[in-house]
């Protein structure tokens, strides 16, 4: 319609169709850059924390699995009407593009939180000289309750949004609730430990020049002493 506008003066095209077309154009132009920057930042930060190139790439694939399952559920519920009676949701026939981008951004960030929780503890054991198999097992045991508690809290919050009778808010709430639930159970507590156990020492592989870079500029934690040494109390002098 914009191509057929009359000449000789200003004219505009309005309406829901024009707004949706503009929104899709904006998202289509900026989304690849946003995804690229997000993935690059995640890989760089996880490399700085672990010194590995395999672990960040594996985390990207794990997030793809989590997000793919999330958007599959959203399409089935809001696009096809699956379980709409049980969930009391509105079937709108398609996902709102703005909602899809919002769910992607928040779900990606929350997934990385759980990834850092788990990897941080595993890396501590590996740095202490524990083999990878034992480090993964003990790391999962130590962080499982933290991840589960955080996930339960977020699922409850997002479920309240999913109970709204507004299509966009329902999509955001259900999408984030499903993303957190899948990521904190199937992905972080099953797929990630399983793949790390299978890879073994290959989890910590990186090219030589990247290993040298990590040795100079990598992120590391300072270990606390096993026992805190307190100064001996000074003798109290006074009249007997």
Automatic annotation (TrEMBL):
It is a multi-pass membrane protein. It is found in: Cell membrane. Residues 7-208 form the Membrane transport protein MMPL domain. Keywords: Cell membrane, Membrane, Transmembrane, Transmembrane helix. InterPro entries: MMPL_dom (IPR004869), Mycobact_MmpL (IPR050545). Its main location: membrane. The chain crosses the membrane at residues 23-48, 60-78, 90-111, 146-166. Signal peptide: none annotated. PANTHER family: MEMBRANE PROTEIN MJ1562-RELATED, MEMBRANE PROTEIN SCO6666-RELATED. Belongs to the resistance-nodulation-cell division (RND) (TC 2.A.6) family. MmpL subfamily. This is MMPL family transporter.
